[in-house]
Amino acid sequence: MVNKGLLETDILPNVSQPARYTGHELNARVGDHIGAEATMLLAFPDVYEVGMSYIGFKILYDIVNSNQAWAAERAFAPWPDMEAQMRAHGVPLYSLETYTSARDFDLMGFTLQYELTYSNVLCMLELAGIPARADERGEGDPIVIAGGPCASNPEPMAPFFDLVVVGDGEEAIADIMRATAQGKRDGASRADIVSRLAEIAGVYSPSLANRVERRVVADLDSAEYPRKFVVPFLEAVHDRVALEVMRGCSRGCRFCQAGMIYRPVRERGTANLCELAEALVRSSGYEELSLLSLSSADYTQVKELMSKLASKYGPEGIAVSLPSLRVDSFSIALARDAEKSRRTGLTFAPEAGTQRMRDIINKGVTEDDLMSAAADAFESGWDQIKLYFMIGLPFETFEDIDGIASLSRQVLELGRKVAKARGKARRAGVNVSVSSFVPKPHTPFQWFAQNSREQLEHKQLYLKERMRVRGLSVSFHDVRASHLEAAFARGDRRLAPVIQRAVQLGCRFDGWSEQFKPGLWHQAFADLDLDPSMWANAEYGLDDPLPWDHINMGVSREFLVREAQRAARGVTTPDCREASCSGCGACSGDVRVRLAGEFAASSRQGGGRA
Amino acid sequence: MSASMRFRVRLGKGDEMRFVSHLGYMRAFERAVRRARIPVAYSLGYHPHPKISFATALGVGMTSEAEYLDIELNLADSGELSTLEVFELLQAATPQGMPVIAACAAHGKPALASSIEWASYRANVQASIQPDLERAATELLASESAIAEINTKSGRRRADIRPMVRNISWRSGGVLECTLACGGRAHLRPQDLLAHLGLIGACVYRTGLYFTDRESGDLVSPMSVECTDLVMAMGFRPGELTRGS
Ligand code: SF4
Fold first, then answer.
1. How distant is the Cα of A10 from the closest Cα of chain B, in angstroms?
2. What is the best residue among A220, A250, A580 to mutate for testing ligand 1's pocket, by most ligand atoms within 8 Å of CB?
3. Residue A235 and residue B27: Cβ atoms within 8 Å?
4. End-to-end CA distance of chain A, in Å?
5. C-alpha distances in angstroms, A390 versus A325, A327, A474, A560?
6. Distance A217 CA to ligand 1 centre (A)
7. B34 and chain A in contact, CB less than 8 A
């Protein structure tokens, strides 16, 4: 245990947001750490408010702690002011539940949600007093495991993990806890337990560099889902009841990694969801309930579910919301029902500015779709609309960038017209957020190079110039950050020492623009005679070996090749829920598309735990 | 019976929540009310919010056994609720570090926040510096005025703190107790008084909030004025939420 008195008197009064580091939230695990047969420190390499927003993290916490014999506790990356205090006072990374030092856990499991948290992983290991590289660890060190979407190419971080879990974590984490407890009972050595865990399906061992097939929950409706959320005292980024209505998306946007690696679409039944909603609302006291997934308007029974929930909880002052909107009138109607107050702006993601480009990326949105959705939104009373676009996509020309500007202006014009007609005093506004395309593993665009930094910067300037219109505001992602993200996403093990070096130099929280230090990253690469362009800007041939070839995420290479070729010809591929199967390879055996309708009859009894 | 009813609740803020901001503390209470399914009344308008008003904020890092709030309930649908019922529902729903100490029905018009004038605090003092501190306190109480640097809502400034110090006394075991101005008209943070006396970084514990009785000038508890049906937590001992006492 760390010295709580020292924390309370000498450390916490001197840091920003001290409640990040004190735990004791409602529904946090209480109870003894010592007596547990296997203990896991769930580590999220970003700040508390961010980590507490991820449903995957909550699911794993719940699964481990619902078994009396196991304990899962939490740790987040300390903000730099706290890190400095911890170092100054010799306080190691500790768990929020029992203030147990990270080193005293059997297992430490990192969620790799996005690439720009990699430096924080190493920083947390260092604060924990755990050697950074797996081959430097020994008896007494926790077994360090990673999971999450970035595990689909674990190579840049592979030397730092004893094991990596690939795919859905629900079943894998239980297997890992069980095997660890058994190993301890058998008096097995650490090395022995590591090799036992490596046998578990979906587990990748960086030292063996084995081929691995992702874990996938075939039937989400019977999978475990928390009935209690830890309710933070600090406002988390997403601070509400999140109901995961489905996993996976088959719209097939060719740049989107989540849209590929979580296939096939697996919905939960509405009976189950209503029951979960009730349990979560009652146990949390949250004032908002949100339907979570990659594209919740695509949930087959979204309308019924929304109206059921809204009529049940609306009168109690609990808002029901839909975070991800499609670009169509159906979505606006849903949002209109959900959000009586129009307090937040509406967000649409056309992603590209011309029909040609949207066909290339397989974003099934037309200009008409966007304009009529925007018209609906303005007429329903929203006056701020946010548009998401990407630049630097494969086959992009300057016409496509012009298209972004002209589409945005058209939406603004429309908003003005509607506002005028309705005699509204407040002017319509359009916020345009432009990110740079990052090629991601296991997508049809994995072979394509990211534009060079110079190209992206030029395109940003070009677009900015065309967007100088009152009422239109535009923001861009930092090109240097996107460049680094691309290098990590497509990288291999040669990057590991670079990341280690960067952390030594002081890189932390690279996803936070005020913390990101591109100069230090530049130096870290230079110190090892490497350059991020070697990965970010490499164009791979369709037959080239890729650093993530040994990780099987369900979708087949043949499908991805086919999609890349169709992209080159500007041919779209329909959603397999609406048209026929496009043969992506994600379905096999038990694993298939499951829609809410099939669970309709089986309203579950007695808690519904699988 | 009218459809709406106001209750006054006294909460504690224990060690588990000492670093939670006032905003976080209020939000945690609102969520407890929702979990308890107490029919709180909502304000009208586009962004309805529950009618809960806290007496005054407590600084981050402090603990307390005197956090008061008023909550208005809409009993049109649910029927009457007794103080005891409200008390018990809340007690079952608040998180660790937020004990429900007392509840009563509040009838008077005076808004809680604007009626608070004084607050009492307690701080542990190391034996080695206690004589110095006692001397400084005696000197302060004997003086007509005392200019010190204090923190206010609008930043640091110099002010005469003497009128804002009603009382400083000592309990056995090196515990300093003081009663200071609290509220919108005049406010002295206990840390500023302690710093003036020569003590930095003490853990401060709030023990009470008070109205001033207009006639006698005495300090009275917010639960003693136009309040009825008081329910107190069984076995509550003043001071129990403070560390090491
Ligand atoms: S295998 Fe066919 S049905 Fe299954 S997700 Fe892929 S495209 Fe859809």
1. 8
2. A250
3. yes
4. 35
5. 17, 16, 12, 21
6. 15
7. yes
Nearest CA to ligand 1 atom 8: A576
Residue A427 in this model has a pLDDT that exceeds 50: yes
Q: Which atom of ligand 1 is nearest to the CA of A264?
A: 5
Residue B76 pLDDT greater than 80, yes or no: yes
pTM score of the predicted model: 0.93
Which residue's structure tokens are 């630049």? Answer: A391
Percent of chain A clearing pLDDT 90 (strictly above)? 80
User: Domains of chain A by range and CATH?
Assistant: 4-213 (3.40.50.280), 240-490+538-569 (3.80.30.20)
- A573 Cβ inside 6 Å of ligand 1: no
Name which of B15, B18, B19, B203 to mutate to probe chain A: the one with the most chain A Cβ atoms within 10 A of its Cβ.
B19
Three-state SS letters, A301-319 = CHHHHHHHHHHHHHHHCCE
- A→B contacts (Cβ < 8 Å), by residue, are 8-9, 12-13, 18-19, 21-22, 24-26, 30, 231, 233-235, 282-287, 316-318, 340-341, 343
- Phi, psi for residue A82 in degrees, rounded to 5: -70, -40
Residues β-bridged to residue A85: none
Closest C-alpha residue for ligand 1 atom 4: A587
User: What would the mean pLDDT of B132-137 be, rounded to a whole number?
Assistant: 94
The ipTM estimated for the assembled molecules is 0.89
pLDDT tens-digit map of A182-213:
999 999 999 999 999 999 999 999 999 999 99
Check whether A442 has a pLDDT greater than 90: yes
B50 in A contact zone (CB under 8 Å)? yes
Residue B168: pLDDT over 50: yes
A379 three-state secondary structure: helix
Whether the link from the prior residue into A264 is cis, omega within 30° of 0, is: yes
Q: What is the DSSP letter of A449?
A: P
Residue A603: pLDDT above 70? no
Q: Is A442 exposed, middle or buried (0-12, 13-18, 19+ CB in 10 A)?
A: buried
| A471 phi-psi bin (left φ>0, alpha ψ -120 to 50, beta other) | left
- Going from the C-alpha of A569 to that of each of A250, A283, B17, the distances in angstroms are 21, 52, 60
The crossing angle, in degrees rounded to 10, of helices B83-93 and B22-36 is: 110
d(Cα A11, Cα A2) in Å, to the nearest integer? 12
Using the Cβ of B19 and the Cβ atoms of chain A, whether some distance falls under 8 Å is answered with: yes
- pLDDT range class, residue A605, cuts 50, 70, 90: very low
Give the Cα-Cα-Cα angle B208, B209, B215 (nearest 5 degrees). 120
Torsion, Cα A40 A43 A48 A53, to 10 degrees, reads -90
Q: Going by C-beta distance under 8 Å and a sequence separation of 6 or more, which residues neighbour residue A58?
A: A226, A229, A230, A242
How much is the pLDDT for A581? 94
The rounded distance, in Å, linking the Cα atoms of B99 and A254 is 53
Q: What is the pLDDT of residue A347?
A: 85
The model's pLDDT over A77-112, given as tens digits with 9 standing for 90+, comes to: 999 999 999 999 999 999 999 999 999 999 999 999
Q: What is the pLDDT of residues B79-98, one digit of tens each?
A: 889 999 999 999 999 999 99
Summarize pLDDT for A361-390 with one digit per residue, the tens: 999 889 999 999 899 888 888 888 899 999
CA separation (Å) from A275 to A64, A210, A227, A230, A283? 21, 41, 9, 18, 12
3-state secondary structure of A299: coil
Kindly report, residue by residue over A297-321, the tens digit of the pLDDT: 899 999 899 999 989 998 888 888 8
Which H/E stretch holds residue A119?
helix A118-128
**Sheet strand arrangement including A346-351:** A346-351, A384-391, A429-436, A472-476
Residue nearest to atom 2 of ligand 1 (CA): A581
Q: What pLDDT, on a 0 to 100 scale, did the predictor assign at position A610?
A: 34
Q: Output the residue whose Cα is nearest ligand 1's atom 5.
A: A264
